[in-house]
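TA notes, week 10

Several of you asked for a full example with nothing omitted. So below is the full record: structure tokens for the whole chain, then the designed sequence directly under it. When grading your own attempts, check the secondary structure regions first.
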């Protein structure tokens, strides 16, 4: 029996671009659903149960960033955003809202296909150990939740995977390229290393005042989870 085709959702308000993406992805072997505006995108996520989403940020009805934030609030669905703005602010807006990767228009269709394959490998990137515990920090991967001394941490699926990967190896420094490989299942050839930087920033922010102490920056090398047990001590 043939393997079941992967499902892609293309969210693009420009009819010609949407058709181009649909035909290309169908040639790549995907089953493709479409949406032309923000509200339709949210309905399509529920109706088509896609494996991956290609999301244009410039949407009518509901902005692409709002769509991204609503989907990301309760789903780890891989999402690649398309933007016509080639500047750092546009990229960071998308990453901060929960995008896994981004491409600036115009873009290469073969590169798009490669980036989607990298996103779809993400589920194999982080070994599935059910619970990771370091001091008062508990990360339950199967339960998709984490808490510090019993206090829930509001992390997305990708942020949870990043924190779990680092927490498994306290004191060990990982470069951004290594984190792309192990957490995203990607490489810096296909995915910007800024993706890692932004996700680290978001995890630190959600950890509160202790975030920068837990996830340390090693200048010129990358990031590591704190090895000093006193850093991880619960607040009193």
């Amino acid at each position: 029996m043939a393997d079941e085709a992967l499902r892609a959702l293309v969210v693009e308000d420009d009819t010609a671009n949407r058709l181009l993406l649909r035909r290309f992805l169908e040639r790549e072997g995907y089953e493709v659903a479409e949406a032309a505006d923000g509200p339709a995108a949210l309905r399509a996520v529920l109706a088509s149960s896609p494996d991956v989403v290609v999301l244009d940020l410039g949407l009518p009805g509901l902005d692409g960033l709002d769509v991204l934030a609503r989907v990301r609030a309760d789903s780890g669905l891989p999402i690649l955003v398309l933007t016509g703005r080639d500047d750092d602010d546009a990229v960071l807006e998308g990453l901060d809202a929960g995008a896994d990767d981004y491409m600036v228009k115009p873009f290469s269709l073969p590169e798009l296909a490669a980036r989607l394959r990298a996103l779809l490998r993400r589920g194999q990137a982080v070994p599935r150990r059910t619970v990771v515990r370091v001091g008062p920090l508990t990360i339950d991967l199967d339960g998709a939740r984490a808490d510090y001394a019993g206090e829930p941490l509001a992390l997305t699926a990708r942020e949870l995977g990043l924190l779990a990967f680092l927490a498994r190896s306290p004191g060990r420094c990982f470069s951004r390229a290594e984190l792309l490989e192990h957490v995203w299942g990607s490489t810096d050839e296909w995915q910007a290393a800024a993706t890692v930087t932004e996700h680290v920033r978001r995890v630190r922010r959600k950890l509160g005042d202790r975030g920068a102490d837990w996830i340390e920056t090693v200048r010129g090398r990358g990031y590591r989870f704190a090895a000093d047990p006193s850093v991880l001590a619960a607040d009193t």
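Residues 194-207 form the longest helix (14 residues). Use that as a sanity check on your answer.
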